[in-house]
Structures are given as structure tokens and as C-alpha cells.
């Protein structure tokens, strides 16, 4: 089991490491640039080449059954689910085969609304309860994978 973090805009890097340390798992933080990251013996820092979706491509090429991916990127989530990985959003929302289709459709709709000027595309604020939900979802995912 390996944890992959889409790290560029991830607000739960420390929480993910807490779960990784509790279970003795390796965790890879993947980003396009150098960013401040938590340190630890199980931490792998991956800086990919500049370019659109380079971090996503790196994660998607490696994630598979028994792995956990943390991302808010819906297309990356879909790719990782297809490869058999568990996927959790920053706010603790787990993506699965049933929910990813709706998430992709909503992403497309919101992109269209932004492009036509109907929406400014503001995202909801990240709050303390999101951190708590994330920790619960990560712990549950690890336990589920360990149970098989």
C-alpha cells in the first residue's frame, strides 16, 4: 500500500502523513515545483517536469490496487479509480465508481459556466470539519485495504 498526494494545492499534507506514520506506509508528495512539505522517513518528494498534468500523469502511472490517492482533480481521480486505487478528496469525500461520473459531469458544467461568464467559479472554503472528515476517510480507506 502506498499513498500518493497531488501536493500542489493540497491542504491536508500533514494529516495524510499522520495516517501514513500510524500505519507504517510510504507516502509520495507529487508537485510541479518545490514546495514546503512535511518531513519523515516514509516521505518521498517527487517534483515532476513543468507542464499541464505532469503531476497527474506521474501519479496515474503508478497508482493501482491497494494504493490511496489524495486529490481534488476529478480527471485524475477517474484515472486512478480505473486503475483500482482508492481516491479521497481533500475534504474527505471518497470518490468511487458510482460518484465519479457525476463529479466529471459537474466539472464539465462548471467549466462551461465559467467560460460563458455565468459563474466566477468560486470554491467553498476549506474548514476544520473538512480536516476531520479527511482524517476519518483516510483511516477508513487504510483499514478497508488492510482487510482486503
Summary keywords:
148 residues, alpha/beta, 6-stranded mixed β-sheet, 5 helices
- Nearest-angstrom radius of gyration? 15 Å
The computed structural class is: alpha/beta
Largest sheet: 6 strands, mixed
- Which consecutive residue ranges, at least 5 long each, have pLDDT under 50? none
Number of helices: 5
What does the model show?
This protein is of the alpha/beta class and 148 residues long. It has five helices and six strands. The chain has one domain: 3-Layer(aba) Sandwich (Rossmann fold). Helix 1 (13-23) runs parallel beside helix 5. The mean pLDDT is 89.
Brief overview:
This protein has 148 residues and is α/β, with parallel strands linked by helices. It has helices spanning 13-23, 54-62, 74-82, 100-115, 128-147, and strands at residues 2-6, 26-31, 43-47, 68-70, 86-88, 94-95.
Give the helices and strands, then pairings.
Layout: E1 2-6, H1 13-23, E2 26-31, E3 43-47, H2 54-62, E4 68-70, H3 74-82, E5 86-88, E6 94-95, H4 100-115, H5 128-147
Parallel strand pairs: 1-2, 1-4, 2-3, 4-5
Antiparallel strand pairs: 5-6
Amino acid at each position: 500500500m502506498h499513498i500518493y498526494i497531488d501536493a500542489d494545492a493540497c491542504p491536508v499534507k500533514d494529516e495524510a502523513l499522520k495516517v501514513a506514520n500510524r500505519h507504517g506506509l510510504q507516502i509520495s508528495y507529487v508537485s510541479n515545483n518545490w514546495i514546503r512539505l512535511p518531513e519523515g522517513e516514509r516521505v518521498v518528494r517527487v517534483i515532476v517536469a513543468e507542464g499541464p498534468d505532469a503531476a497527474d500523469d506521474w501519479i496515474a502511472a503508478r497508482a493501482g490496487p491497494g494504493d490511496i490517492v489524495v486529490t481534488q482533480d476529478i480527471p485524475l481521480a477517474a484515472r486512478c479509480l480505473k486503475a483500482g486505487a482508492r481516491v479521497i478528496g481533500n475534504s474527505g469525500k471518497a470518490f468511487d465508481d458510482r460518484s465519479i461520473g457525476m463529479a466529471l459531469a459537474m466539472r464539465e458544467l462548471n467549466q462551461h459556466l465559467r467560460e460563458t461568464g455565468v459563474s466566477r467559479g468560486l470554491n467553498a472554503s476549506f474548514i476544520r470539519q473538512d480536516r476531520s472528515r479527511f482524517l476519518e476517510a483516510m483511516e477508513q480507506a487504510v483499514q478497508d485495504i488492510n482487510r482486503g
